[in-house]
Amino acid sequence: MSSNAAPQPAPASRQALSVLFSSTFAFTVCFAVWTMFSVLGVPLKTELSLNETQFGLLIATPVLTGSLVRVPLGMLTDRFGGRPVFALVLLVCVPPLYLMAHATSYAQFLVLALFVGLAGGTFSVGTPYVARWFAPERRGFAMGVFGAGNSGSALNMFVAPLVIGAFGWTMLPRAYAALMLGTAVLFWLFSHSDPSHRMSSGTGLRQQLSVLKDPRVWRYCQYYSVVFGGYVALALWITKYYVSEYGFDLTLAAFLAMVFSLPGGVLRALGGWFSDRFGAYVVTWWVMWVCWVCFFLLSYPQTQMTIQTLQGPVSLHIGLNSTVFTILLFVVGVAMAIGKASVFKFISDDYSDNIGAVSGVVGLAGGLGGFILPILFGALLDITGIYSSAFMLLYGTVCVSLVFMHYSYRGTPRAGTELTGTI
């Protein structure tokens, strides 16, 4: 008796699941460390008497290093495997974290932040490492689970204010140094290696980077600079935004910022599932539209108007209160979580044999967005004095992205099918 039922995908092996969960845990810790200045930077801004642009540079500096090392780390992962590369990065971050507790000048913090930023490069290590343990039909979900480690920024926003409030800011880098060391040990104990996942030793740098000739790679870089770069920038900036715009204390501001950061991380797995089911293009397209609407509303500054009427002047106040603002941020966080997964579904479909190099390039573009945007946020605030100018900038980037996506594809996109297009 025959059956027309589609074959069910084989279940993931125990080793594959162990790799997935140990890598996700390690990446969550790395992301918390990578975004530590989103909270630590607030007391340091007062202590070091920084202006808004200097503050933006301080919180963004770790993002720069974490972005620049993504390409070489991705290629090292292709060559040597994810387990040794991931563990090495975890250990290298421990000394600069501990030394940060003893820094006294702005320059010292910037230098140490560069080394701490290596933690952000683990994304381009874990992505190919995890993906190669799963069948193609499960990779979108698996990479989404790993990418949920972005919720480390929410973990930082929960832990850092408590540590700073109880012991002072110098305790935070010490605590993170110990956490990173413990994570390296746990990761090594519960992760695994498979020599078949490594690329041939005869594959040279030029061959690995040959994917840069493909216009699709640059297209995916552009998408990711919005959904990931924008997410990182807001995760770094939003705690201080609550403090400055609404007058909240550090603990409450960080808690509300977590409303954005947490779904922006943990729901990435949902984005992977959507991408497996409906197609990466369709999911990414709708993510951009949701962000466009939200950023339009968030861009409007607090406005006080006086209207002359027959009965005399009438004063009106137009602006978002903290509740509406937080709801809109939550929606943006959900959309960006889904979008981050859908972009990497593109990559896993098109570059299954060279995921490390391609994910490194795309991750670099996203990370550079996360580095540049906080600096621009601070510069715009110094120039205009308008807090919501940060969202005006993000609104503009999404407008460009939607236009770019529209003209990059010919015809009407179908679910699960990306049509041929050119940049």
From TrEMBL:
Q: What is this protein called?
A: Nitrate/nitrite transporter
The answer, when asked if Transmembrane helix is one of the entry's keywords, is yes
Q: Name one GO molecular function term.
A: nitrate transmembrane transporter activity
**Where does the record locate the signal sequence feature?**
none
Q: Which InterPro entries match?
A: MFS (IPR011701), MFS_dom (IPR020846), MFS_trans_sf (IPR036259), NO3_transporter (IPR044772)
Concerning SUPFAM superfamilies, the annotation shows: MFS general substrate transporter (SSF103473)
Q: Where is the Major facilitator superfamily (MFS) profile domain?
A: 16-413
- Spans through the membrane: 20-42, 54-73, 85-103, 109-131, 143-169, 175-191, 220-238, 250-271, 278-298, 318-343, 355-380, 386-405
| Topology in the lipid bilayer | Multi-pass membrane protein
Alphabetical keyword list:
Membrane, Nitrate assimilation, Transmembrane, Transmembrane helix
The record's section on PROSITE patterns has: MFS (PS50850)
Where in or outside the cell?
Membrane
Which BP terms does GO give this entry? nitrate assimilation
Q: Which CDD domains match?
A: MFS_NRT2_like
Family listed: Belongs to the major facilitator superfamily. Nitrate/nitrite porter (TC 2.A.1.8) family.
Listed under GO cellular component are:
membrane
Q: List the Gene3D superfamilies hit by this protein, alphabetically.
A: MFS general substrate transporter like domains (1.20.1250.20)
Q: Does the keyword Transmembrane helix apply?
A: yes
